[in-house]
Amino acid sequence: MSKILIDRRAALAGAAALAAAAAAPRATLAQAGPIRIGMIVPLTGSGGPYGPVMAKAVKAVADEINAAGGVLGRKLEILVEDDQTNPEAGVRAARKLIDVDKVTAICGTWASSVTTAVAPLCWESKTFLATVSGADSITLLPHQGFLVRTQPNTTLQGRKFGEFALEQGAKRVFFLTPQTPFADSQFVNIKAAVEKGGGVAERLIYDDKKPSYRTELDQALAFKPDALVFGGYTADTTVLVKDVFRAGFSGKKIAFAYSVNQKLVDGVPAEAVEGIYTIAPSPAEGSNAHKRLVKMIGMDNPDPYTTQVYDHINLIAMAIAQAGEASGAAIRDAIRKVSQAPGGEKVDNALDGLKAIAAKKPVDYDGASGPCDFTDIGDIADCKFRYEQVKAGKIALVKIA
Amino acid sequence: MLAYLIFTLTIGGIYALLALALNLVWGGAGLVNLGLAGFFAVGAYASALATGAGAPILIGWGAAILAGLLAGFLVTFATLRLRDDYLAIVTLGFAEIVRLVALNERWLTKGADGVSGVRAPFKAELGVAGFNFFYLTLVAAIACLVWLALRRLDLSPWGRAAKAVREDQELARFAGKRVLRIKFEAFAVSAAIAALAGALYAHFTSYVSPDHFQPLITIYVFLAVTAGGVGRPLGALVGGYGVVLFLEATRFLAGMTPGLAPVQVAALREIVIGASLLAVLHLRPQGVFAERPPKAPRLP
Hints:
The complex is a heterodimer of chains A (about 400) and B (about 300).
Chain A lengths: L1 H26 L7 E7 L9 H17 L8 E7 L4 H14 L4 E5 L2 H13 L3 E4 L15 E3 L4 H14 L4 E7 L4 H14 L3 E7 L7 H8 L5 E4 L3 H13 L5 E5 L5 H6 L2 H4 L3 E5 L6 H10 L6 H20 L4 H12 L5 E3 L2 H9 L4 E3 L19 E7 L2 E7 L1
Parallel strand pairs in A: 1-2, 1-3, 3-4, 4-5, 6-7, 6-8, 8-9, 9-10, 11-12
Antiparallel strand pairs in A: 10-13, 13-14
Helix pairs in contact in A: 2-12, 3-4, 5-6, 12-13, 12-14
Chain B lengths: L1 H27 L7 H17 L4 H22 L5 H21 L1 H4 L5 E2 L6 H33 L1 H11 L1 H6 L4 H27 L1 E2 L7 H13 L4 H24 L5 H22 L17
Antiparallel strand pairs in B: 1-2
Helix pairs in contact in B: 1-6, 1-9, 1-10, 1-11, 2-3, 2-4, 2-9, 3-9, 7-9, 10-11, 11-12
């Protein structure tokens, strides 16, 4: 008997909690309430390491703005949802933020597939979306201006690889890569950059699970390259650099910084990795915005995505103030007036920006991830890249440019 | 809020279809199919690609069902001699193969970028809100039709034979039931229903990518069938809707817990989902709607 009673009580409590849950958002949906900004980040799944820090940074910025009086006299409220690094779950999270919480903007979407899935919901409901995804196809969606991203697309990254190879005096560049979302556009842009400087480029796509790449290398070396570009991830690149060393290749070697990292360098004989150059989009280290972010979240080396969402929330807050209205369409129309107003006052945080906007001054925001200037379709116009080289088992900075 | 509810119930209908598909093959014929996400993907891509090439949407859905049937036959053929754990492993592998093919065959599927802009039926005519409501009704109607059909099937001689195969396939064979044929039929029809669910999903959200079809979705559908009641189509139908409503409810419940960072809220949600599966298995292992074995017919 008593067992049934507990069950019933538990059921009642559960039902009450559910009812409260359903009623809660409606109760707080007053017109003059806070300005709601949504965040969809991976808190679980393969993007899990990044999301929590991104959420922390955005909340810290919002707290700072709120402490200084908010935007348009209203507080910012940040609502964080987990996308589980999965577009299906991401769409459900976006629906909740848009339909229940009525957010004006969403920032932080990380995986390209999640961004592509969420973007149509945003432009249909006139919600602004700021993302850190890099796939070229995203800004080509018919987003009507409701989308910007702070991650350089692969077109820009490919060009930087090609130009860097030329700078190192390479005229014949060979690109070795496994099948990745960006393998095609990466190569097209390396080739374009190299050919512009009078060189030639060729490529080979390999299977990233093989224990040896001797045959692939034979094919690559038959091209007589001056430079090899590695497009893979850490595991396959580890095998590849050993084989390249064994084959006696003496030209330049260039790779992504995320594949030739300290872990790879430690795990491979020093002479095999000596001299490999690495390239990565660089946060604007040393800039004021970057220093503020480091202080705010108490981490020395925030990852690129965290520096980017820091910029998202600052830009969105300023765009709302600039437009004088908290809506997705208003942010769309105002965002470029605060990110890149010609001759505008340079600011590196929303607090200074909001003051300048209140004083009717034009604003040009330079953030923690870079200058944050957007093209018409929402790509960033330029971004700093970090060039490093492996020297005696350590990765040493060559330049940031 | 209304738009959100409509959306949630539409997704619920799609999960209900998946649960019905799983119930047919698992609850019916006793074949553990962990490759449900793979058949879901086959249907989604088949319809997205067919309509992308200019076919009308109904033809796309037909193509999805056909592709699902074929995939189902193929997988049954490859797993003829497997049962239980071994079948589960192989079907899980099948789902991964589908995902990897979708990831690598860029000429067909656009790789990791996925197929975006999948046509949504009558969206231009009905507007966004009208379309969402129309689609909710459509999915619910299809789910109910499939439920009625499977219920009929469940009570038919075929359904009894399938359950005989589930309980003891040697005995079923001894009793003159064509075990192999029943397995083929159950698997293929189940795969076709899952593929139809995939097609409905693709045309609802207008976007499919390999990331959509991670094994997680199969786990949720297993939760739906287990909670609803294995072996009873009504259980699968209710379980499918129930799981999606429950997944969304945990979002609000976990969010109301004070003093937690977002990452802890996300973890709490997963804990609640896992704990509830354990609770269902412990408190009501037969599910909400327990299977009702038919009585033996009276001899004349």
